[in-house]
Amino acid sequence: MSDKNESYTIKQVSEKTALPPHVLRYYENEGLLPSISRSRNGVRRYSEGDLEWIGLICCLKNTGMSIKQIKSFVELSVKGDRTLKQRVEMLLEHKKNVEAQIQEMQKHLQKVTFKIEKFSKQYEKYAEELKAKTR
C-alpha cells in the first residue's frame, strides 16, 4: 500500500507513466502541472495527486484534446469548485468528440475488415489456381 504523502522524483514518475522527463517538464512549463513541489535543492517532487493529474492529462491528450484546451481545463480546476459546471461542460463536449471519433473509426474498421475478407478470398483463389498450374 502506498503512503498518500509519498513523493516521487521525475525519474520515478517517468518510469511509472512511460513519459520521458522532458515531456513532464514541458507539461509543467505549459501550466498543465501547476502544483509540482520542489525539494530545498530544487528537485521536482511529484505527489500522488500529481500522478492522477498526469493520468488525466494523458487521457485527454490521447483522446484528442489539445494542450491549449487541457491548459484551460487545468486553469479552471485551479480556481476551485466554482468552475465545476464549466469543467463538466468541457468534459461533456470532449466526450461527444471522442464518441464521434469512435464512430468514424468503427466505419474505417468495417471497411478494413471487408477488404481483408475480400483480399483473403482472392488470395485463396489465386493460390489454388497457382497450385493447380504446378501439378
Architecture blueprint of SSEs:
Elements: E1 7-8, H1 10-17, H2 21-29, E2 37-38, E3 44-47, H3 48-62, H4 67-78, H5 84-133
Antiparallel strand pairs: 1-3, 2-3
Structural overview:
The chain is mainly alpha-helical. The chain folds into 2 domains: 1-78, Multidrug-efflux Transporter Regulator, Chain: A, Domain 2 (Orthogonal Bundle), CATH 1.10.1660.10; 82-135. It has 5 helices and 3 strands. It has a 3-stranded antiparallel β-sheet. The longest helix has 50 residues, at 84-133. The N and C termini lie far apart (68 Å).
Summary keywords:
Multidrug-efflux Transporter Regulator, Chain: A, Domain 2, 2 domains, 5 helices, 3 strands, 135 residues, mainly alpha, elongated
Spatial order of strands in the largest sheet:
1-3-2
Task: Report the span from N to C terminus.
Answer: 68 Å
Number of helices: 5
What structural category do the secondary elements indicate? mainly alpha
Helix content: 55-70%
Strand content: 5-15%
Average pLDDT across residues?
94
**Number of folding domains?**
2
Poorly predicted parts:
none
| Order of SSEs | EHHEEHHH
Regarding quaternary structure, how should these chains be classified? single chain
Q: What's the story with the biggest beta sheet?
A: 3 strands, antiparallel
CATH-derived architecture of the largest domain: Orthogonal Bundle
Q: How many DSSP-defined strands?
A: 3
Give the CA-based shape: elongated
Radius of gyration: 24 Å
CATH top level class name of the largest domain: Mainly Alpha
Per the CATH scheme, the topology name of the largest domain is Multidrug-efflux Transporter Regulator, Chain: A, Domain 2
